[in-house]
Amino acid sequence: MQRSSRFGVIVMLLLFIGGCTSTRLEERRVSFVDGSLKGDMLLTDFVSVVNSGGLMEVQVTGRNKTSRYRLLEYRVEWFDGSGMQVPSVMTRWATFPAFEKASFSFSAVAPKQGVSDFRILIRKAKK
Amino acid sequence: MKGKNILAALAVAITMSGCATSVQHIDTNNDQGKAVMGLDYRDFQTAAGEAVGSMLQSGALNKRDGGRYVLVVSRVINDTMQRIDTDQLVKKIRIDLLQSGKVVVTTAVGPNGPEDRMAMQTRELRQSEEFNQSTVAGKGRMIAPELSLSGKILQRNIRVSSGTQQVEYYFQLTLTDINTGLAFWEGESFIGKRGSNKSVSW
C-alpha cells in the first residue's frame, strides 16, 4: 500500500515537472548560430503553411528561459524546388525581442510562389 | 644633406601612412559597423524588407483572377533633413514585388512624366519609312496601371539631454487601387536612433 502511494507521488511529481517545462522542438531548418544562446533559448513551436496567395509562410515560436531581456535577430533564406536560393530584400537580419522568462515568436513570408524550403538562422543582435 | 632630406621624407611618409584608415569592403550580410545617426543602406534595407513582407502577407497583391497587378510608382516624398534619393527605398521594393510574380511595374507613366520616355518616343517611328512598321509598337497596346505606390519618409529630431539627441525616422507607404481610390495596403516602418548631439543627422 505504502509502496504504491509512493509510486503515485513520484508519477504526480513527474507529471507536474513535465507540465512546467517547455518541450524542446528539433527542427533542422531553424538553428541558433550564436553559441552563447544555447541552453538559454528554446524552440517550442514551428508552423509552415502556404497562404491563399500561394506563398509559403513560417512562424517560429520559442522561449527565453533566462531572467534577462534579450534582443535577438533572425534571417530567413528561401529556396525554390530545385534547391536554388531565392534572393530577396527580406533576407536580412531582422531584430525581435525575447522578454525574460517569456515566449517569443516571429513570422516570415516567402518572396514568391514555388518556394519550397527555407533556412532560419537566429543569433544575438548587436547593439 | 641629401641623405637627410630622404630620411625626413621617409619619416613623413611612414607617419602619414600610419594615420590613414585602411579601406574595407562592407560585408552587407553581416555588417558589424556602428550605427550612424543619418540613414544608411541598412535602414533602407530594413524599411524595404518590412514593406515587401507586409504587402505579401496582407494578401493585397493577390489578384482575383490570379494574374498580376500593374503598378505605378507615384511620389515618395523625402521629408527628412537629409539629401535622399527615394529610389534607394523604392527600387528595392520594386525589385522584390516584380520577382514575387504578383506585380508588374509600368515605366510609361509616373508623377513627373514617364520614367522611361522611350515607350512613347519609339511610337513616333510610326511615320518613318526607315522602320519596318510591323516592329513598331501598335496603338492601344500600353497597359494602364491599376495600383499606385506612394509614400513619405519623415524625420523628427528630439533633444533628450544636453549631450544626447534622438532621431526618429518613419517610412510610410500606401498602395492605392487607382480604379476606386481606396488604399489596399498601408505600412509604416520606424527606425529610431539615439546618440551624441555632436553626431549630424543631415
Automatic annotation (TrEMBL), chain A:
Its protein name is DUF1425 domain-containing protein
What Pfam families has UniProt attached to this entry?
DUF1425
Q: Which organism is it from?
A: Pelodictyon luteolum
InterPro entries this protein is in?
A: DUF1425, YcfL-like_sf
- PROSITE patterns xrefs: PROKAR_LIPOPROTEIN (PS51257)
From TrEMBL, chain B:
Note one Pfam family from the annotation: LpoB
Instruction: State the signal peptide span.
Output: 1-20
Taxonomy, top ranks, is: Bacteria, Pseudomonadati, Chlorobiota, Chlorobiia, Chlorobiales
Q: Which residues fall in a coiled-coil region?
A: none
Keyword set includes Transmembrane: no
InterPro entries of this UniProt entry?
A: LpoB
Q: Note the PROSITE patterns from the entry.
A: PROKAR_LIPOPROTEIN (PS51257)
Q: Which organism is it from?
A: Pelodictyon luteolum
- Its name, as the record gives it, is Penicillin-binding protein activator LpoB
Keywords (A to Z) from UniProt: Signal
